[in-house]
Design brief:
The protein is an alpha+beta fold and 102 residues long. The chain is 28% helix and 29% strand. The chain contains 3 helices and 4 strands. It has a 4-stranded antiparallel sheet. Strand 2 (33-40) and strand 3 form a beta hairpin. It is globular. The two termini are 25 Å apart.
């Protein structure tokens, strides 16, 4: 499992633009995408992230090949629509826990 994080500093007047871009993201879900979250920092409200959980490296390799072909990943385009310059990071999930609901 892998997690990609797109992060940008979004001015308050563009928050709705980013939220709408995320909600209306069109097209088929990329293969291997398991979950995605649009989150906003509590400490600095201009800092937003799109966290995406991927099933594995092969999914991200497909996105990397698309980037090399000149196709910008959707998460980065959403930040650009909101007039923010996004940064992008990828992480390996080394371990995980799920809350015990019993």
């Amino acid at each position: 499992m892998m997690i990609s994080i797109a992060e940008g500093r979004v001015k308050k007047e563009n928050w709705a633009v980013l939220e709408q871009a995320y909600k209306s993201s069109s097209g088929p879900t990329p293969p291997g995408l398991e979950q995605s979250f649009l989150i906003q920092s509590i400490e600095d409200e201009e800092v937003w992230q799109i966290l995406t959980v991927w099933s594995g490296m092969s999914s991200l390799q497909q996105i990397q090949r698309s980037k090399e072909a000149g196709i910008t990943p959707r998460a980065l385009l959403m930040f650009q629509e909101a007039h923010a310059e996004p940064a992008h990071s990828i992480f390996n999930v080394m371990d995980s826990k799920v809350a015990n609901t019993k």
